[in-house]
Amino acid sequence: MTVRALRIAARAELLSLLVLLANLVTVHLPAVSSLAGPVHGCAYLLVVVLVFRTPGASGAAKGCALLPGVGGLLALRSLGRPPARA
Length: 86
Known about the structure:
Blueprint: H1 3-25, H2 30-52, H3 59-65, H4 71-79
Helix pairs in contact: 1-2, 1-4, 3-4
């Protein structure tokens, strides 16, 4: 897993969610939903797969990856930290 790929997927996930929410509260165009919905879903799944395939990823990072929208960015932040001492 490259951090770059995870960073791109996490940002795409968040951006597509913001587009979906903005569309929902404004004009609610079906074309926007039909385009941004699958993009968001694919980006979410890619974030989850990338984090779960990362060697040494903590349980916190994996749990964060499961959160829709901001989970990818939180997982990136968690992966960048050294492991906590017990």
